[in-house]
Amino acid sequence: MRSRDDNGNRSAVEMWGGLECTVTRINGTVIDQTRLTGHQDRPEDIDAFAALGITAIRYPVLWERVAPNGLEHADWRWTDERLGRLRKLGVRPIATLLHHGHGPLGTDLTRPDFPEQFAAYAARVAERYPWLNAYTPINEPLTTARFCGLYGVWHPHARDAAVFRRILLNEIKATVLAMRAIRKVNPAARLIQTEDLGKCFSTPRLAYQAEFENHRRWLTFDLLTGRVDRDHPLWDYMAEGGFADDLDWLVANPCPPDVLGIDHYLTSERMLDERLERYPGVNASGNGRDRYVDVEAIRAVAGGITGLEALLEEAWDRYGLPVAATEVHNGSSREEQLRWLKEAWDAAKRLRGRGVDIRAVTAWALLGSYDWNSLLTRRDGFYESGVFDVRGPKPRPTALAKLVRTLASEGASEGKADHPVFDAPGWWHREDRFFWAPVRACSYTVQRKAWAPPANDAPRPLLIAGNGTLAHAVARLCVVRGLPYVLSPRREMDIAEPARIAAALERYRPWAVVNAAGFARVDAAEVRSERCRRENVRGAEALARACADASLPLLAFSSHLVFGGDGDHRESDPVAPLSVYGASKAEGERLALETHGGALVIRSGPFFGPWDADNPPARAIRAVAGGRYFSAACDVTVSPAYLPDVVNVALDLLMDGERGVWHLANAGAVSWAEFARMAVRAAGLDAERVLGVPAADLGWKAPRSARSILRSERGAGLPSLEHAVGRFIAEHGAEFPTWNEAEFDKEIA
Question: I want to staple 271 with a disulfide (CB 3.0 to 4.6 A). Which of 297, 479, 486, 725 is the partner?
Answer without folding.
Answer: 297
